[in-house]
Amino acid sequence: MSLSLARQVIRSQSLGRPFVKYAALTPTILRTCAHYNTATAAKEETSKEPNQQLKPIIFPNVGTESFNVAARILPSNLAEQFAILKACISSGLMVRAARIMLELYKSKPDEMKVFVDINIYNSFLNGFASVPKPMTKECLDWFDKMKTYGVTADANTYAIILKGFLKKNSFHTARAILSEMKINENLSIEDMLSSSYLNKEDIVLFRKLVSESQGSNSVDIQKLLSELEIATNKRLGDTAEVTMENATKSGTVSAELMEDIPEVRPTRSVGVQFLQEQLSALRDPNTSAKMDPYELQLSLEYQGYEMALQRLLYTKEQSIERGDTLNAMNLTPLKKIMWNWHENLVPLIEEEIIRCEAATTRETERKSYGPFLKLLPTETLSIVTILELLRLHNSSGIGDGMKTARAVIDVGKAVEMEYNAMQMKKRSNSNLMAKRHDVHTLFSSGKLFNMALRSAQIEAEKKSGDLAMDPNLNDWNPVWPSSIRAKVGSVLTSLLLEAAKIPVPSRDPETGLKIIENIPAFFHTYQYVHGKRVGIIKYSEQLTEMISREPIRDTLHPRLLPMLVHPRPWLSFNSGGYLSTKSLCMRIKDSPEQLLYLQKASEQDRLAKVLAGLDVLGSTRWRVNKDVFKVILEVWNSGEKFADIPPLVEGHAPLPPKPANYETDPKAKFNWVSEVKQLQTNEKNNHSLRCDVNYKVETARAFLNLPMFFPHNMDFRGRAYPMPPTLNHLGNDLCRGLLHFEEAKPLGERGWKWLKIHLANLYGFDKHSFSEREVFTENHLEDVFDSVDNPLTGNKWWVKADSPWQCLAACYEVASAVRSGNPEEFKSHLPIHQDGTCNGLQHYAALGGDLAGARAVNLMTGDKPADVYTGVADMVNEQINKQAAAGDEYAQLLKGNVSRKVVKQTVMTNVYGVTFVGARAQIENRLKEIPDLPKNKVYALSGYLAKAVFASLGEMFHGAHKIQDWLTDSARRISKSVPLETLQENGLVPGGPSKSETTLNDKPKRGKKKKLTFSARNPSANQMSSVIWTTPLGLPIVQPYRRSGKKQVATLLQTIFIEDPDASRPVNSLKQSTAFPPNFIHSLDATHMLMSAVACHKKGMTFASVHDSYWTHACDVDSMNEVIRDQFIELHSQPIMENLLNEFKERYKNFRVPVSTPIDPKTGDFQDIDPFALADSSSLFENDAENEKRTKEEEQKNAIKAIFGLGADEAEEDEEIIDEVEGEEKPKKLASSNTSKFKYTWEPLTFMPLPEKGEFDINEVKKSPYFFH
């Protein structure tokens, strides 16, 4: 029986509904970029000159139709429909799903051709096959339409269809489909059975197909069944691969018994309790020792909000078993109330789901969010909503509440994340687990750090389609748009507001008897924030009081803990990190342009060195330092303030008395309210800090006897960060003191020396020579021993250190080494740090060849480490002394008061683009600490001193400042440019459609605001050009700074504004230009770090980094120092600035900039001016100061108005959802004259010549002992 005949039989059994056919639709032609063959690329790269760069990746400019096509950016309305479609499929609402799909193909055929691929289509077909009674006829009908819609079936498609027919025992049809797959499509049975759409039970059905078809006489069928039997047995039979549940343990967690460590004193934070519940699996050493570490890691990642619910249910059942029926639950008051909320909320959600199912076509909102409420059990939806709303307490700057927009979107996002986690767990099968385990084993062995082997592995997995090693690789899982998150979050939040009550003692007004009154725990209202009316969800006073005893902040997401095994290797831009969670190697927010460049670089195998660097950082094994942990735990449980651990706070501080004129004087009222708010803010901050420490201590206790790994990813500049947020080595001093390397190495002679130097550095004795630092430690050995023996009862020498907890860890190491009798043979776990000297300035000095600057930041040799901060302070004091002698009042006040500490922060941040206002604020904070200075003069003095610091820096780093100015100027030109293609399309330059400016826009309708004409005079709306560059390691970087675009979304609670994904958002020109120099330097220091990481790993060193601070074992410090210098020289031996200029010329070669040339009113001649001329520094200072003054005055006026409810806009705006545009550049008004005239033209984008490089030889770095120290 042929497959076509089988289809006819099935259709004849239907109700005779007509089958709608569509004519072939003309596909939208995608503008493709040439792909890059990996093997060929490897050969080409080895044959290139070292400094020769690959041609940069270039895409069409943002805002053009060609970019939208190339980037495959979903229009927002299609994104919403896709999300609803997926929710319908997952909820089993296949009739509605088919209706949505049909309507989309009717109304948006071109978009569907572009965006519907085989994964979307397979997910849709799988919906028909996965319902309790498989809808095989509909599945087959849509399968027939695939080619008409331009989609080609693959092995997954046939697996889905066969699964549906086998579930209905339609073996005859299944054989015909299997035969077509094998003969017509040339797809293998092995590939089909490997489909992620098949689970173990589904594969059993294929074995049944073989047994039911034994009587067939066809030779071809028998051959096919024989092949199917072999493949099925391979999956299920005795020879089948061993599943994770009974796999031979590839390794065991250390069975070292848990010491008798005291419990951690809780902060009564639900967030901390949630963390304790997640870590409970690690508490039992016997259980964790028996489990496969890989399996244990997976179980930790799969945990979600469901665990919190199960824990709550278990505690309730235990209470009832104990007979505790009066109190219902033996819990804290808040948990009792949460349980009541949960019991009230679940039936409300169930009722809402029923209403959604019965919704008419007019009830569009219920039709939109209804399918999403069926994705998770109602109990899970309830607990997610409760925990998220409690977590957001005091967020977004709202006292005793939160902004509504933030709340509803966060609740919606939490539902989405929990659903994704459940799907990931459900779809993980043994075959995929085994594949991931194989790659994991290969990575753990270190073999994947061989670049040739790495490339071969990537190529092999590209061909097999398993690159991401992800159970959802072939599944379609669209991201929910913010509008969907808002609608889902809104309905759940509004239901919780209805369900959440708090019992409050009261009296009956008529009888006077005591009664219990249930009042709302939350209520929705509006509040004025900075003069704007903002919707908020407030906590009732009773709930606030309860939370003040049991506060809830910063609930930790359960899938972001340190890992127990090596992280998954980064083999592509979206394949690495945690074992089960799909992650990107770069943290990207609202920048499809960056994602597009990253994806293309990954496809062309240009990210291999960057990703290898991230893998090196992730492969470092860490342990908790038990000695330091015991001290921290004792301090914590005491509740006292000690060495950056905040004290336990119980009760509120008394409020200041109200002034006598409080009711009559608005300013007096404002000042008192401000003082109270500051008091409350300090209280909340102290509690937040204590909760933060609590998280760290709890996590450290859970991992006390276990190895830890920190998977890394990077920001858009390439700087690496650990993904687990709670406990990692990038954290504060306490975090760093708690961690050391798992591997121990003998110190040796040099290692013993570096350990002593390290202790001196941590104490703060780091501006002296190495020999002086050694002597410092040797002179304080008695203090070291006392710190170790009596850390909390002795003289506490270690507490006076700059980094007390790290100093204590070093004291334990030094004391153990000395007491071992032979320090050089002592095996040390402690990481030794080598820090760059103001690393940003080091890169600037190297780029500019600046001799004086190089000497100031230790790029050149010296007897002692040069201190750039002291150098700047000395230059400033020299200026001040001269001006004081000349009678300058400010100089006389500052004389003798300008120390290294006063200027340090400003010098450090100057290289990263600190403004004059920012620098003045930094210096003002330091001057306030000097008692001799009059308080009323501090503001003026800080401005005076900021100018002096900037002038000194400009003198010391002359070449660096020229580079900085060139970068700023280039970015300004780029951000104001427009592609020639856009100008031609609008008829503004020859070569496109002939249009005059007056016809570009239709005459505005009455009542409509007139739209500005796009021209050289008004170009800003079409200035879409971001600054894009490629790092020396091949990482493309896109600056994300654009103006905000709002979209209004109606929800059940209120209308909110979100970022509009369809809006053409011009760049923020000012931010693009001012942020480019620091971002460029950050990309260079990130490049240097990743190069050093890979080079250290090749030499067998353990390596970790905190940006420009590099860590390794004491015995390897000399080797690491050699690597750091070699890699810095290799980096800066390249023509970095020349390559950047060439890339800019290539990337922006067909761009134009608007130029306005003044015409002399008398002669009619054009005046020569540079449209990009940089303002001098003094005018910049004045402008910054003036702008800040105006802003402060405006904020104070708005704040006073807000207290009295005056003059606010009605429109609700949420700063958390709509990022404020910082420093948006306004069009400048040119100097006016009676008859000013200008000529507006579009001129080719050009760049200034590069600054002349100085005489500094980069190879001098090799001789500098204090380059990193």
Topology, please?
Layout: H1 3-12, H2 38-47, H3 65-71, H4 76-91, H5 94-107, H6 109-115, H7 118-130, H8 136-145, H9 155-167, H10 171-183, H11 189-193, H12 200-212, H13 219-236, H14 270-278, H15 280-283, H16 285-290, H17 293-302, H18 305-321, H19 333-357, H20 364-373, H21 378-391, E1 401-403, H22 404-427, H23 430-444, H24 451-464, H25 482-499, E2 501-507, E3 514-520, E4 522-529, E5 532-539, H26 541-549, E6 568-572, E7 575-577, H27 592-603, H28 608-619, E8 622-624, H29 626-638, H30 666-702, E9 712-714, E10 720-722, H31 733-738, E11 739-741, E12 745-746, H32 748-763, H33 770-779, H34 781-789, H35 804-819, E13 827-828, E14 832-835, H36 839-848, H37 851-856, H38 868-885, H39 889-894, H40 900-910, H41 916-927, H42 938-956, H43 958-975, E15 978-979, H44 980-985, E16 1028-1030, E17 1036-1038, E18 1046-1050, E19 1055-1059, H45 1069-1098, E20 1104-1106, E21 1109-1112, H46 1117-1132, H47 1136-1147, E22 1151-1159, H48 1177-1204, E23 1237-1244
Antiparallel strand pairs: 1-5, 2-3, 4-5, 6-7, 8-11, 9-10, 12-13, 14-21, 15-22, 16-17, 18-19, 20-21, 22-23
Helix pairs in contact: 4-5, 4-7, 4-20, 7-8, 7-9, 8-9, 9-10, 12-13, 18-21, 19-20, 19-21, 19-25, 20-25, 21-22, 21-25, 22-25, 28-45, 29-30, 32-33, 32-35, 34-35, 36-43, 36-45, 38-40, 38-42, 40-41, 40-42, 41-42, 43-45, 45-46
